[in-house]
Design a protein that fits this description.
The chain has 2 domains: about 160 residues, NAD(P)-binding Rossmann-like Domain (Rossmann fold), CATH 3.40.50.720; about 170 residues, Dihydrodipicolinate Reductase, domain 2, CATH 3.30.360. About 40% of the residues lie in helices and about 25% in strands. The strands form 3 sheets. Strands 3-2-1-4-5-6-15 form a 7-stranded parallel beta sheet, with helices on both faces. Strands 10-11-12-7-13-14-16 form a 7-stranded mixed beta sheet. α1 crosses α13 and α3 crosses α4. The termini are far apart.
Length: about 350
């Protein structure tokens, strides 16, 4: 069995963190990306093989994928990169995973389900903080209330964001929000709804709806037709989100995007900052008869969770534990998948 895997975009903030954690586990991934200087330096630091190619170089891309059992795709924004990598995985019969949180990417991968089944590969986008903890929480709530027709999820990340995360958010700043109604994803204005979220431990925050990946994935995992996802935003950010309803077309223009992207600081949180951070999640499921269940989940800081969850899933795939076709983390591995990560705790209320 081929137990090798490829990390593409390994020189990005999250890709480099995943690479470091992989080596600490005794794994030897092949790392790859477009920037030869950065990739070669990272490979030398960790004693790894590396490849350098752009995603539009299909010859080199296919050659690299043919060497491995799976790819962990870390080069976003994934709305711009996932299609090329995904198509190459189908051609080479290589398992596909990524760390996206973008609804359009999840839906495109779901649409490729039959092709993935025919190729005998698993396609699983969102193997990081987007969306492993929340997907597992959604499945847990569904298991507790099989008749559920409504699902509400919320998360609160204590810590700062990386350059890549902020770049993706900035790119989508003018696109509004999204929820799921009667099984279909529907657009809503940015900051469509707010509500108070009790995360436990005396932490109550104002949440705002966002187009988080679970609007897509939780439906595929649970079949619950009505889904909303909230995150915590300070008043200044909430005001900016509401303002974007009117400035959307302007925010999407090339010059404005170039300016906004130029203002994003490089890198991401330090090891010390990540160690101090953590992630709080809350979820509620209800049915048409008025039954309701609620649960809370605590796990490590978001980037730490991403690295640990992604490598946990990589271990499963390369050892032969996979299901062909499009899968979500909880659908393939169950609601307790997140509890395999040290420091993760779940509580029912």
């Amino acid at each position: 069995m081929n137990e090798r895997f490829l990390i593409y975009g390994a020189n990005g903030y999250t890709g480099e963190l995943i690479t470091r954690y992989a080596v600490e586990r005794g794994l030897k991934p092949i790392i790859a990306g477009r920037n030869e200087a950065a990739i070669s330096a990272l490979a030398e630091k960790h004693g790894l093989e590396y490849r350098v190619f752009a995603l539009d170089d299909t010859v080199e891309l296919d050659a690299a994928l043919s060497e491995v059992a799976m790819v962990l795709h870390c080069a976003g924004p994934f709305s711009l990169t996932s299609r090329q990598m995904g198509e190459a995985c189908l051609r080479t019969k290589t398992h596909y995973t990524d760390i996206t949180g973008e609804i359009a990417v999840f839906e495109a991968c779901a649409a490729a389900n039959r092709k993935a089944e025919d190729a005998g590969i698993m396609v699983m986008p969102g193997v990081g903080f987007d969306v492993v903890p929340s997907d597992c929480l959604a499945m847990h709530l569904k298991n507790r209330l099989p008749s559920a027709t409504n699902l509400t999820l919320a998360f609160y990340g204590i810590g700062r964001m990386s350059h890549g995360t902020q770049a993706t958010m900035t790119m989508n700043a003018g696109k509004g929000g999204a929820v799921r109604r009667d099984g279909k994803i529907m657009p809503v204005p940015a900051a469509w709804r707010t509500r108070e979220i009790d995360f436990g431990e005396g932490i109550v925050k104002t949440g705002v709806t966002i187009p988080w990946g679970d609007v897509s994935t939780a439906y595929h995992s649970t079949g619950i037709p009505n889904i909303e996802v909230y995150t915590i935003a300070p008043k200044s950010a909430l005001k900016a989100m509401k303002l974007s309803r009117y400035l959307g077309p302007l925010l999407e223009t090339g010059p404005i995007q170039k300016y906004l992207q130029s203002k994003i600081p490089p890198g991401g949180p330090s090891d010390e900052e990540r160690a101090r951070g953590r992630s709080l999640l809350w979820g509620e499921a209800s049915d048409d008869q008025g039954n309701r269940v609620e649960a809370r989940l605590t796990c490590p800081e978001g980037y730490t969770t991403t690295a640990l969850a992604a490598l946990n899933i990589a271990d499963k795939i390369i050892s032969g534990n996979f299901k062909p076709g499009f899968q979500t983390p909880a659908k393939a591995y169950g609601a307790d998948l997140i509890l395999e990560i040290e420091g993760s705790k779940r509580r029912d209320d």
